[in-house]
Every structure is written in C-alpha cells, then in structure tokens.
Design brief:
It is a single chain. A three-stranded antiparallel β-sheet has the order 1-3-2. By secondary structure, the protein is an alpha+beta fold. The protein is 64% helix and 12% strand. The protein has six helices and three strands, in the order ααβααββαα. The longest helix has 23 residues, at 84-106.
C-alpha cells in the first residue's frame, strides 16, 4: 500500500502539473474506448459513484475533452465519446503516466525482477478480471 500510495501521488502530481488532469479525470478518459461508451458502462470501469462520474463527465465535456449525448432508446442514458482534443490530451497523459511508472519501477528494478513483477501482476489481474478489457490506445 505504501508503494501504491507513493507512486499514485507522483502520478497525480505530474498529471496535474503537465496536463491539468486529476487522477479521476485521467482514469475516466483512459477507460473510454475509442468507439465510445455508455455512461453506465463507464461507471462500471471507473471507481466512482454514478453521480460522481456524471458530474466528472460534465466537467470533461465543458473542457471539450468528451462529448456527452443522449441515447435515443434511454431517456436517462448518455453516450460518451472522446473528442479529438480529448484523444490528444489522453495520449500525452498516458505517456506521462508511463514515464512515472518507468521511473519508479523500471529504473529501480532489474530485468528479472520486472519480469517477475509482470508475471505476478498478470496472474492477479487475470484471476480478478477473467474477461479481457478493450484497450483505449
């Protein structure tokens, strides 16, 4: 937990400084497939309540990073889509995230240690998430 907290704080700081993104905004953007998604499906991918994800999407839409449009067959539903500006910011923010992770892990661990860590994390992820997730990049 200490390592997680330390790395997450560093990621949060760099995302805020470089991209004016909170970690929740980054998590939301990275979980929107390129083909778009429904708001209720996004809520299942992001660790926020329905009302919090809805307000966050409103803020992202106000910033021009996503579009939020009604769904014809569901009056309360919303379709969420990354805009060109959102995709551009996301690509840059993903690189920042990777740089921090590389600096905190890749630069500190040997190749065999990194491979062991990858295997352990893959096994834990597969066990907890048997269905593969669609990548957004």
């Amino acid at each position: 937990m200490e390592v997680h907290t330390t790395v997450l704080r560093k990621i949060e700081r760099e995302l805020a400084e470089r991209h004016k993104l909170s970690i929740s905004e980054f998590d939301t953007l990275v979980n929107i497939p390129l083909s778009g998604t429904r708001l209720r499906e996004l809520k299942d991918r992001v660790v926020l309540s329905q009302s919090a994800i809805s307000r966050l999407c409103d803020r992202l839409a106000d910033r021009g990073l996503i579009t939020r449009s009604p769904v014809d067959e569901d009056m309360r539903g919303a379709a969420i889509q990354l805009t060109d500006a959102g995709r551009k910011l996301l690509r840059s923010a993903v690189r920042t995230n990777a740089e921090v992770v590389e600096r905190e892990f890749g630069d500190r661990l040997s190749e065999p240690q990194l491979e062991s860590l990858r295997e352990i994390l893959d096994q834990l992820h597969t066990r907890n998430h048997p269905e593969s997730c669609e990548t957004t990049q």
